[in-house]
Fold each of these.
Amino acid sequence: MPASPLSPLDRFRSASRRYSDCSILMHEAIARKADLPGTDHKYFGLIMQQGAMTAGELAKATSLTTGAVTGLIDRLEGKKLLERRNDDTDRRKVLIVPLAANVKRHIQPLFSELQRRIQERLASFSEKEIKTIERYFSSAALIMDETRQNLNATM
């Protein structure tokens, strides 16, 4: 007897799992090419999005321990992707600052083909479809962030 066809929700769940898995594997491959551990690559992405921040702010954003954050910063600084700078307004604070020129030279080329192809794919969707996809990703990200916070609160 043939298997029953998957429901639209089951197909969506399957596609979502595949997207998540492919994303992790692709970012791991990019990290290896950049000579970074995969998690360092993703945490560095957060630093790039947020801009200059303190180690404490990074620890709070990532739920990493202060020791793990120090190691992360040391490794990224060693790769010349960021630097520590004293805060001009409060000399007691040390900011972690991405080095945009080095990122552009060493990391950005690893994404150029991906970005081109994704942009090409997005051009095939209507504005309404893009808004629907954006709404899904935005709401799913909120749910995942709440789940992460809840899990970290129970540790």
Amino acid sequence: MQIIKRYHDAWMFAAFLLLFVYMMALAPDVFGAAGPDVKMTKVKGGCYTMGDDSAAAGNEEKPAHEVCVDDFQLGTYEVTEAQWLAVMQKPSPSGISSGADFPVRGISWNDAKEFLNILNSVTGLNYRLPTEAEWEYAAKNGKQQIYAGTSDSKTVAEYACFAGSCKAAPLAVGHKKPNSHGIYDMSGNVMEWVNDRFDSRYYKQSPKTNPKGDPFGVNRVLRGGSYNSVANQIRTTCREYLAPDIRKNEVGFRLALTPLP
């Protein structure tokens, strides 16, 4: 009986060892960019003037109003094709591909939420889309900055891939200069989904602290403009929107995360 027990224990150990080796072999595919390869930048919260009352702004950007946000983290880069593939185990649903280090695009708001659900189940964290208020605060560094990184139209091409600086296609993430937070491509490259529902009159009734957008709307907000946008569309206050199931070639997304570690 002792011999049989030893044989059984040895067999169980061998089976466990094989299972461990198999799981380790799978780990790069399962975890890949879902965890440590998602670079985040800590953004210290504060109060700032959200929106724009200038002649360049649309009515949906008015009135300019004070908003305060808590500390949060924002993706240093837009979500890339490599990160999408590592998490979803399949290419972008749009079928568009420029390369591993390029922003994933042709992504609907619903697609982005599916990515987040899987990413969070793998990492045990609470990645999400930023709120519109968080996005703008990070883009302009809490100041009335026209573009992410500069207010000077003569230097905006150094910070943004848009119609005035790119040839109808995005660049690999991080190719241009970062803004003062050290975050890249918040103006141009691809338009970025935020979590908020769109309401053109929301700024007239927005709460001051951590606004989360209209609770009843259908369309979702896009920020930052894209490689096809003119300069006025890549301003830090510019608001665009689409239905959550619509995919456009110019659209991708960026991650947010709270609480801070």
Amino acid sequence: MKTDKGPLAPRSLGAIGKRFWRDTVAEFEFEPHHLRILEQAARTLDRLEVCRLDIKKNGTLTRDRFDQAIVSPAVELEIKLTRSFKSLVRELQLDIEPKDAGYSRPPRLAITGRNSKHA
């Protein structure tokens, strides 16, 4: 389903993922296959928030079975998810400004149409 501001966010996304989705589809136009990648990026942000909350609650270090301090699994997962999110953003080319890119790219900046901030 589509609104004036673009396709609706998947219901399964959390608050942070939905906000990222809404902000992104309001700014860019996407082909259907790009929306799947966008959904993965939004879901990654939701998972990152779970990691951040765990780290805030339990700290960055934990103890192994030998009582040695080790990095929390949540920190390691946060690092992996951050890399994944950056990769998905690059795949969607959201990190490239159209004027600097020198070419049109999907998704392209919405400069016409009713959901454009620039029209």
